[in-house]
Amino acid sequence: MMRHQITLIPGDGIGPEVAEATVRAVDATGVAIEWDAVEAGARALAEQGQLIPDDVFASLEVTRVGLKGPTTTPIGGGHQSINVALRKKLGLYVNFRPIRMLPGLKTRFSDLALDLAIFRENTEDLYSGLEHEVVPGVVESLKIITEKASTKIARAAFEYARREGRRKVTAIHKANIMKMSDGLFLKCCREVASGFREIQYNELIVDNACMQLVMRPETFDLLVMPNLYGDIISDLTAGLVGGLGIVPGANLGDHHAIFEAVHGTAPDIAGKGLANPTALMQSAVLMLAHLGERNASRRLQEAIQQVYAAGEFLTGDVGGKASTSEFTDAVIRRL
Ligand code: NAI
């Protein structure tokens, strides 16, 4: 049997709890994984003096694949966000977030069987971290949009659409105001779209897109957008299918991939055994597929779906009473 090496970054807050649950579920699929656990985040800063200690990059250099829990980035004080640093350093230009309804879960939109996916550019835009004070009382934050990164994210979305037989890609922008930066993003999307004639392509201004997503989410299929709109719209669409505890994510580059949930460290419930590990488990479903373990990926996805359909062992955020480990045990029993 092939043995995979994965870098595990448990993270802060509820991170270690959802990471432990996910490792147990992945191991229960029977796939042979050697987990290389490394620390990043607030704990790493306190214990090792660095938010991302060097052994994190050293491990990822060997394994090329990471599973990551949420990490705290201290606000202010000149620390770069860990996620931004990892994405930039490893060239993880695609942030992929599939948004799917889980069976049995009651949300305002449960009857719509939503199935959409977000392709968020992950390395530039206002997240370049280029901010400075022009004169006292005036700061400037630079929005960087390049032809190269915009073309890469657009190509990733269209190639996925072709591979998975999806029908439509919608580019989200604000090019009516940011004519040059978002204008360039759209130009790149149009050029890529012209090579994929079988896939419908349309464009929506971000504010209108937010309204349409709330009023008619079922009309969307794949959405491609620059970093900031992607950050906001990911959370909006997560809300449509039951919240942050559910939705998985993948950060993909040409050489590395890091799988992580959309949610943060949830300090309000950390350490209480209440966290929902579904988001990280579903990220692990994407990870197993990425590793070529299609069968294990499908089995883990189905086990999670069965636990939701039965509705017996759900965590508090999705209306249940179960603890993190009771939910995890239920998933493992279905495996
Ligand atoms: P958050 O996602 O941690 O929490 C928002 C709300 O959702 C809270 O009420 C929380 O209890 C709930 N929630 C989130 N995940 C949950 C789960 N798995 N199960 C049950 N309930 C869950 O967002 P917030 O409060 O804005 O950020 C807290 C910290 O997380 C900050 O330090 C932030 O920097 C960090 N963060 C890290 C991210 C990452 O590393 N990927 C992403 C977002 C935030």
If you had to describe this structure to a student in words, what would you say it looks like?
- By secondary structure, this protein is α/β, with parallel strands linked by helices.
- The protein folds into two domains: 1-114 and 241-335, Isopropylmalate Dehydrogenase; 122-227, no CATH class.
- It is 40% helix and 19% strand.
- The chain has eleven helices and twelve strands.
- The chain has helices at residues 15-28, 42-48, 54-63, 82-89, 147-164, 181-193, 206-215, 227-240, 278-290, 294-310, 324-334, and strands spanning 3-9, 32-37, 65-68, 94-100, 115-121, 131-135, 138-141, 168-173, 200-205, 222-225, 250-252, 257-260.
- The strands form two sheets. A ten-stranded mixed sheet has the order 2-1-3-12-11-4-5-10-8-9, with helices on both faces. Strands 6-7 form a two-stranded antiparallel sheet.
- Strand 8 (168-173), helix 6 and strand 9 (200-205) form a beta-alpha-beta unit.
- Helix 1 packs across helix 9 (278-290) and helix 1 runs parallel beside helix 11.
- The longest helix has 18 residues, at 147-164.
- It starts with a strand and ends with a helix.
- 1,4-dihydronicotinamide adenine dinucleotide binds at residues 14, 18, 70-73, 83, 244-245, 260, 263-269, 275-276, 279, 317.
